[in-house]
TrEMBL record:
It is found in: Cell inner membrane. This is non-specific protein-tyrosine kinase. PANTHER family: FERRIC ENTEROBACTIN TRANSPORT PROTEIN FEPE, TYROSINE-PROTEIN KINASE. Keywords: ATP-binding, Cell inner membrane, Cell membrane, Coiled coil, Kinase, Membrane, Nucleotide-binding, Transferase, Transmembrane, Transmembrane helix, Tyrosine-protein kinase. Residues 219-275 form a coiled coil. InterPro entries: AAA_dom (IPR025669), Bact_polysacc_biosynth/exp (IPR050445), EPS_ExoP-like (IPR005700), GNVR (IPR032807), LPS_length_determ_N (IPR003856), P-loop_NTPase (IPR027417), Wzc-like_C (IPR005702). Its EC number is 2.7.10.2. Belongs to the CpsD/CapB family. CDD domains: BY-kinase (cd05387). GO terms for molecular function: protein tyrosine kinase activity.
Length: 750
């Protein structure tokens, strides 16, 4: 913000930025925003406590599984294949325990799908579910899910509830499962270990079977003899394009499979035709709305339609609510109706796109049917030729059977040796069975509430800091020094409504002994009066080291209390026995004249232009002896700044200086007009009035930056219309301004 170095002449304006927050500033923010922080922290802590209250308790059961690679060595034919398992091997077993294969086995063994179906059936018969399904048929579906869908849902939930980890560097794996039923948690944990052991047995068998394929190289010589015997048969088959399998000729199999595929293809064509015709009929029946129940059921898995349906239901709900609240003809309701129609059209468009997809599927199915029909006809011709060649093939196969019998005998012996390596034993065994837990493991009420309170404190502090940053007004005397580089001469309290009662029209405020214009005389020991005394002291001990006799009262904008301060300040000087003249310098809007000298016909203009004398234009307050020169303006005056800057105005003030001790001038606001900047040569010092909690410091700083000559003569600032109760909560107890609260009491109690 603005700051002037007044140590020497000719200094220019500098911008003073806001300093970084230190610990003291942070503590002050906490003290000023303590209620905001408390409310936010309390709200989040209450939400956390509410969550703990409504959350379903969860129980965790744990089992321990040992991976022991030494227990099966004595039973294996080739024990050298089994070795010690390293750390990565144990981590691999952890991943196997968390695999979908094991989860499926547990779900199947414990019949969790059937249990889930029973639970859904029981919940579906409840009153709440029935009412919800009736009121929201599109949101709550009464159609039961298939076993596959339930299984996929349980698998996804299974992974979230399961936690498998290795205990330290040992070969022990801990299995924890969390469920709402403690018995179910224990059953799942134990069954998971059993399913893992069974899976290991199956995996070992499969590994041995695959290893036997590699070991067949050991009987390569026997296989060569058998191949030599079959070579003649194979050559004949290749020559005559005969491919035989255990189930018969490949051509016959192809013919059978092709016939089956043709039947399937025709079925697919019929299904595609039915789907396409159904969607077309729905489109024709639904019109442009696209919101029929059949559409939703037919495209239930379509993500776009699901999202549009959600938006459509939300819009319909809001339209009903807003229609009830504001009426159906309200512009917001009409706009929402337009949005609903747009969503309906979007649903219709997406449905049309799906219809095109079904049409494409229909065309593909028809093309596949035609291709299969053509292939079937070709195979039937080939089958006739193959049947004739089979007569000679049987004679060749009879010669090869004797050679194959010998090969089969040796192969059978090899398989017997291989089977001896596969024993029903694994490296894993359960060492700790899971038992139903007695206490729930979640929710952790203390931790969650403490976390919510901590987060609430952080959020509350953030909200408080945001409020502090967004407040760009003057609330503390220190703000004046920090952002303007000026002294704060005092804080004027907001006067009570009984004191601030306006004077009746046509009556001068000097005619009454009370009122807002008489505050310094009616209550001389008040904080308001004492603050204005500090202004006079500041003028007497001016930093310019010269007498200050002409004092201008200015503000940034209208209605900041400048005129009230001017009248009371001038009365304070006059009441002390010193000669003082109060001049209304607001030639465009003479507020002070309307309140102190209504109905006057001559004033400052006549005095400046020599058309009247001081006694003719001024009025004298009988109570204080203050002389007031009003500003009687016959009409709109454009060049008021030239009048204030004229030599005649300087001559009038010079003459008044010789007769009085102080001259107080009530100037117009500094931001809207330039009159104040034209008066710097006739004013010895300015008192800047700021509206407490209202004057924007950026506007004030920019205004003073554009008027450096005024800024150089500012004696200090007054924070006017301050809320003392709020100020006490904002002031720092160590601040030099805190003594202001003793103004009213000092001298009365002694």
């Amino acid at each position: 913000m603005l700051r002037i170095d007044k140590s020497g002449p000719g200094k220019s304006l500098n911008i003073q930025t806001e300093g970084a927050l230190d610990l003291v500033n942070l503590l002050q923010v906490v003290r000023r925003q303590k209620w905001v922080i408390a409310i936010v922290a309390g709200a989040l802590a209450s939400l956390a406590a509410l969550y703990c209250f409504v959350a379903t308790p969860q129980y965790t059961a744990g089992a321990e599984l040992l991976i022991d690679t030494q227990q099966a060595r004595g039973l294996e034919v080739m024990p050298q294949l089994t070795g010690m398992m390293d750390s990565s091997g144990i981590d691999s077993q952890v991943q196997i325990l968390q695999s979908e294969r094991i989860a499926k086995a547990v779900i199947k063994e414990l019949k969790l799908v059937e249990a889930k179906k029973k639970e859904i059936a029981e919940n579906g018969n409840s009153v709440f579910s029935t009412v919800a399904g009736f009121l929201l048929p599109f949101l709550v579906s009464n159609t039961p899910k298939s076993d596959y869908e339930l299984e996929r849902t349980l698998i996804g939930d299974f992974g979230k509830r399961l936690r498998v980890k290795r205990i330290g560097l040992s070969y022990v794996i801990n299995i924890d499962y969390r469920a709402a039923d403690p018995s179910q948690a224990a059953d799942v944990a134990n069954q998971l270990a059993e399913a893992y052991i069974v899976d290991q047995l199956e995996a070992k068998y499969q590994a041995t079977r695959r290893a036997s394929v590699w070991l067949q190289d050991r009987i390569a010589e026997l296989r060569d003899q058998a191949l030599a015997a079959d070579r003649a048969v194979q050559d004949f088959k290749a020559k005559n394009n005969i491919i035989d399998t255990q189930r018969g000729l490949i051509s016959d199999q192809q013919l059978s499979e092709l016939n089956t595929q043709l039947i399937t293809a025709r079925t697919s064509v019929a299904e595609a035709q039915a789907r396409y015709e159904r969607v077309n009929s729905i489109i024709k029946q639904g019109g442009v709305t696209g919101t029929s129940d059949e559409v939703v059921s037919d495209v239930l898995n379509n993500e776009v339609i699901s999202r549009l349906r959600t938006q459509y239901l939300d819009a319909v709900k809001r339209e009903a609510d807003w229609s009830k609240r504001y009426g159906p003809d309200h512009i917001a309701v009409l706009n929402l109706n337009s949005e609903i129609k747009g969503l309906q059209r979007s649903l219709f468009t997406e449905l049309s796109r799906i219809a095109e997809t079904y049409k494409s599927d229909l065309e593909i199915s028809r093309a596949r049917e035609a291709s299969l029909s053509s292939s079937l006809e070709q195979l039937m011709v080939q089958a006739k030729l193959t049947g004739q060649a089979q007569v000679e093939l049987r004679e060749l196969e009879s010669n090869a059977q004797s050679y194959r019998a010998l090969y089969d005998n040796f192969l059978q012996r090899f398989m017997q040796a291989t089977q001896q390596q596969s024993f029903p034993i694994t490296e894993a065994r359960l060492i700790t069975d899971a038992s139903p837990p007695l206490r729930a493991t979640s929710p952790r009420t203390t931790l969650i509430v403490a976390g919510g309170l901590f987060v609430g404190l952080l959020a509350g502090f953030g909200v408080g800091m945001w409020r502090e940053r967004m407040n760009r007004t003057f609330r503390l005397p220190a703000d004046v020094e920090r952002y303007l580089g000026l002294d704060c001469l005092g804080v004027l309290p907001l006067l009570p409504s009984s004191v601030a009662t306006p004077v009746p029209a046509g009556q001068s405020a000097f005619d009454s002994s009370t009122g807002i214009m008489r505050q310094v005389t009616s209550d001389p020991f008040s904080r308001f009066s004492e603050t204005l005394r500090s202004v006079k002291v500041a003028a007497d001990v001016s930093i310019h080291s010269r007498a200050v006799k002409v004092i201008g009262i200015v503000s940034t904008l209208p209605k900041e209390g400048k005129s009230t301060v001017s009248a009371n300040f001038a009365q304070l000087i006059a009441h002390s026995g010193q000669r003082c003249v109060l001049i209304d310098g607001g030639l465009r809007n003479p507020t002070l004249t309307r309140r102190l000298a209504p109905g006057r016909s001559a004033g400052l203009l006549e005095l400046v232009f020599g058309k009247a004398t001081l006694e003719e234009v001024s009025i004298v307050d009988r109570m204080t002896g203050l002389r007031f020169i009003p500003a009687v303006v016959p009409g709109d005056i454009v060049h008021t700044n030239e009048i204030l800057a004229s030599e005649q105005m300087s001559a009038v003030l010079d003459a008044l200086k010789r007769e009085v001790d102080y001259i107080v001038i009530d100037f117009p606001p500094l931001a809207p007009v330039v009159d104040v900047m034209a008066s710097t040569h006739i004013v010895d010092g300015y008192v800047y009035v700021l509206d407490w909690g209202s004057s924007n410091r950026d506007l004030v700083a920019n205004t003073l930056q554009n008027a450096p000559t005024v800024y150089e003569k500012v004696l200090g600032c007054l924070l006017n219309k301050a809320d003392l109760k709020a100020l006490r909560s904002l002031e720092d107890y160590g601040s030099k301004y805190y003594y202001h609260k003793y103004y009213a009491s000092y001298g009365r109690e002694s």
